Amino acid sequence: MINVGIIGFGIVGSGTARVLLENKEVIQRRAGFAINLKRIADLDITTDRGFPVPDGVLTTDVNTVFNDPEIQIVVELIGGIRPAKDFILKAIQNGKHVVTANKALLATEGTEIFQAARKAGVEVGFEASVAGAIPIIKVMKEGLVANRIKAIYGIINGTSNYILTKMTDEDVEFADALKEAQKLGYAEADPTFDIEGIDTAHKLTILATLAYGIPLSYSSVHIEGISKISAQDIAFATEFGYKVKLLAITKETNGDIELRVHPTMLPKDYLIAKVDGPFNAIYVEGDATGSTMYYGRGAGSIPTGSAVASDIVDIARNIQKNSVGRVPTIPEFTGEARIRKIDDIVSRYYFRFSALDKPGVLSKISGILGKYNISITSVIQKGRRIGEAVPLVVLTHEAKEKDVRQAIAEIDTLQVVTGPTCMIRVEGKEET
Ligand code: HSE
Prior knowledge:
Layout: E1 2-7, H1 11-22, H2 24-31, E2 35-41, E3 58-59, H3 63-66, E4 71-76, H4 84-93, E5 97-100, H5 103-120, E6 124-125, H6 136-143, E7 149-155, H7 158-170, H8 174-183, H9 192-195, H10 198-212, E8 222-223, H11 231-240, E9 242-253, E10 256-267, E11 279-286, E12 290-297, H12 301-320, E13 338-339, E14 346-356, H13 361-371, E15 376-381, E16 389-396, E17 399-400, H14 401-411, E18 417-426
Parallel strand pairs: 1-2, 1-4, 2-3, 4-5, 5-6, 8-10, 10-13, 10-18
Antiparallel strand pairs: 7-9, 7-11, 9-10, 11-12, 14-16, 14-17, 14-18, 15-16
Helix pairs in contact: 1-12, 4-5, 5-10, 7-8, 13-14
The chain binds L-homoserine.
C-alpha cells in the first residue's frame, strides 16, 4: 500500500480524491497494490464536495501532510505560484515524491523544483499540467521516445476554444462569447490567463522541454491571445475555408526551435480544426510516427483528477519496484537552445485592412506589400461605400514575419487606411 496526501481540495483536488476513492478497486487491480488517500489538506474542509470522504482524512493543517512519515506522495493542487512552490519544495525536502497540475509554476519556476527533486532523489509527476485528461506527458516521455519531434500544434486552452467555437457557430462577438464561457464555469472570474494565451504558453513551455530537451523557456514564447479577434475576422475565415483556433506551436527547423502561441487560421477540413467547444487536442509529428493526434477534455474536476491519479500510480509503482527515476522527470539538457525569434518565422498571413473605398487604395496597399516581398493570393472587399471605410481582406503566400510587421506599420500610416490592420497567421498547406 502507498499513502498519499493531497494539498488543495478545490476543483482538481476533489476530482482527484473522487477518482482515487471511487475507482480504488480498479486501480488496485491494475497496480497490484492499494493507493490509500490518507490526508487532504485545505483551509475549507466543511463545504460539501458531493461525495463522502472517510473520517479523519480532511485536515486544515498542511503540516500533517509533510510531516507524516507514512505519506510518500504529496499532491499539490492549490495552483498559483505561492504558497504552492513552498509546499512542493518542503515536500521534496522531506523526501516525498510530488505530483502537481500546476503549469504556471512549472513553466516559470520549474527548473528550481526539478533540480531540488533530482538532488533529493524523488520524482515529480505533472501529467495534469497539460491538457487535463489527455495523457500527453506520458506520450511525449514514453510513447514517442524513439522519435525526433518535428512539430507540435496544440489546442490546449478549453476556454479560448469554447469562445472561438461560439463566435464561429453563432456569429457573436468575443465579449458575448466570453460572458457565456464565464456563465458555464469554463473561464475563471479573471480570464486573462485563458484568453491572452498565457495558460497556453505555460503548457507549451512544458511540451517543448519534453519534445526538444530544452530548458523551460516560458519567457521566450511569443504570446498573442484571442481578445482582439472579431466576429468579422471569423466570418472572413469561414469564407476562405478556414477555422480560427488559438494554437500553441513548437517546431524545429535546422536546430532552431519556434515557440509561439497565437490565433491561427487552419483549413477547416484539418482534423485539429474540427476540435470544438471546450475540448483540447494536440497534434504531434514525429520523424518515425508521422502525424499523431490526441484529443480529450483539457479541464474539469474528474477528467483532470484522472491525470493526477495516473501520476500517483506511476510513482507508486516505481516505489514498489525500487525503480524511482526509471523515467526521468524531464530530459537532461545539454547544449545550446536556439529559440527562433518571432521576426524570423515564415508563415502565410491574413490581413484585414480598414481602408477607404476609393480608386487606387488597393494598389497603394499592394505596392507596400510588394516592396516587402509579400505576395498576395486572394483579396476580398466587402460592401460598396464610396469614400467610406470598408474591410479589405488579403491572404498571402509565405512571407517573413519581419517583413510583414514592417509592411503593416507602413500601411497603417497611409491616409486612406482608417484603423489598425488586423493580422492572423495562416497554417496548413497552400492550395496550388
Ligand atoms: N483554464 C484551462 C482551460 C484549464 O481553459 O483550458 C486548466 O488548464
